[in-house]
Design a protein that fits this description.
The structure holds 2 protein chains of 2 kinds. By secondary structure, chain A is mainly α. In chain A, about 70% of the residues lie in helices and about 0% in strands. Chain A has helices at about 5-15, 20-40, 45-65, 75-90, 105-110, 125-135, 140-150, 155-165, 165-185. Chain A is globular and about 50 Å long. By secondary structure, chain B is of the alpha+beta class. In chain B, the strands form 2 sheets. In chain B, strands 1-2-3-6 form a 4-stranded antiparallel sheet, with no helix packed on it. In chain B, strands 5-4-7-8 form a 4-stranded antiparallel sheet. In chain B, strand 4 and strand 5 form a beta hairpin. The chains are: A mainly alpha, B alpha+beta. At the A-B interface, helix 2, helix 3, helix 4, helix 6 and helix 7 of A face helix 1, helix 2, helix 3, helix 4 and helix 5 of B.
């Protein structure tokens, strides 16, 4: 599915903030499948994921008039709300799940990189390509730890447990990886 | 800790965006993000860089029912709901009407109009799950509407001689009754003053097994079967 351009989504969200319900429905249609996809990565099941998506969209409707496209694009804005809500659920103790759903196969998919050393990022925007390139510059450990945290909502301790490494090593890989990632994205 | 010190801010922003902060630290930092535009800008800048990771996954269509649930909770499709547009018109109204007229309208409104059930409010909510993690009930607590909406997600063990009772555990450990939980379908519970006051002073929900009709005492008399976190709006 091709994602809507940032400009289109920004416009829909701005109109939603003015009370345009039809615009908000279109915003929901264009964003909810992508948001549900990553919520399903973070949360234990579809029930929790759809519940968080519901709350995310209600917050989005209520706060749409505060949206400032100069500060962040609509996709970033809505994704940030959804991730914060999902992390609330994860850290609340309601999580009763295999930490990485799908077991060993999914762990391999998180740890593995493509043949050229970059993670699989099918989105074709310039930013996505840049991120894919920059991920390729990271050590495999740093790339895996960042993806574990961001996509699966794992804590440092949970990552350490998953990859059987020390907590300090994980913290160090994430810190160094993010620093390198940010420098690469800005270059 | 002084969060705004430059050297300390970036690592905190990184941990916040990745989600590796402790729950308490994340709450504190969330407030800072909401209050300080410069911190929010740093958070969004990093989110923007990492966004393709989240948006590169294969999209999954939500269930058909989800939009209807959102419409209901957000008060969409009604002319009386507190939509963003309705709220944003208030400054215009204030300048267009004389102060006396505005005061009289507010007075009339307060005296005669009960808040509509479709107000776009954000509830505190909790998901009550069994020991295997199966969600049994979803509770949405609206202090401003004095009500709790309860949805049975998976029917609990059926009870004939008892009821399931929902409690708020305040931060000093006092249980405050919310009401009896439905064993199927949905229910709306009216909240009394004690429950309304407890919502803002509680991070935990509890379910106890009680005689039919509920506990005869101010606290639970039967065993506490389940607990769940109560998430603030």
């Amino acid at each position: 599915m091709a994602a809507a351009s940032h400009t289109d989504l920004d416009d829909l969200l701005i109109r939603s903030g003015s009370g345009d319900e039809a615009a908000f429905r279109r915003f929901y249609d264009q964003t909810s499948p992508a948001i549900l996809a990553f919520l399903l990565r973070m949360l234990p099941d579809r029930f929790h994921a759809e519940d968080v998506l519901q709350d995310t969209m209600v917050v989005a409707w209520n706060k749409a008039r505060e949206f400032d496209p100069e500060l962040a694009g609509a996709r970033t804005w809505i994704t940030t709300i959804a991730r914060r809500r999902a992390l609330d659920v994860l850290r609340s103790g309601t999580r009763q799940r295999e930490i990485i759903k799908g077991g060993a196969d999914d762990i391999r998919s998180v740890l593995s990189l493509d043949d050229d050393g970059s993670p699989s990022l099918p989105e074709s925007s310039v930013t996505a390509n840049r991120l894919a390139h920059c991920f390729g510059e990271l050590s495999a450990e740093s790339a895996a730890c960042i993806r574990f945290a961001y996509l699966h909502g794992l804590t440092f301790s949970e990552i350490a447990e998953q990859i059987d490494r020390s907590l300090n090593s994980v913290k160090s890989w994430v810190r160094r990886g993010l620093a390198k990632l940010k420098a690469c994205m800005q270059s | 800790m002084n969060y705004t010190e430059e050297s300390r801010l970036d690592p905190l922003v990184e941990r916040f965006v990745l989600g590796t902060m402790s729950r308490r630290a994340r709450r504190r930092f969330s407030r800072l993000v909401d209050e300080d535009p410069s911190v929010a800008a740093r958070v969004f800048a990093l989110e923007e860089k990492l966004l393709p990771m989240a948006w590169s996954l294969e999209p999954v269509a939500p269930s058909e029912l989800l939009w209807r649930r959102i419409e209901k909770q957000a008060g969409l499709g009604t002319s009386t709901g507190s939509t963003p547009s309705a709220r944003s018109r208030w400054p215009w109204l204030a300048t267009a009407m004389s102060l006396a007229l505005l005061v009289s309208i507010i007075g009339w409104w307060q005296a005669s109009v009960r808040p509509p059930e479709t107000l776009a409010l954000e509830p505190s909510f909790g998901i009550i799950a069994d020991a295997d993690g199966n969600p049994l009930w979803v509770a949405r607590l609206y202090d401003e509407l004095s009500r709790a909406d309860i949805t049975v997600s998976m029917e609990p063990e059926p009870l004939d001689m008892n009821d399931y009772q929902l409690w708020l555990l305040t931060n000093d450990g006092t249980p405050v009754s919310v009401g009896l939980l439905p064993q199927m379908g949905e229910a709306t519970l009216a909240l009394d003053a004690a429950a309304i006051a407890a919502i803002g002073n509680s991070e935990t929900l509890a379910v106890s097994l009680e005689p039919v009709g509920g506990s005869p005492q101010p606290g639970p008399t039967g065993p506490v079967l389940y607990t769940a976190a109560l998430l603030a709006p």
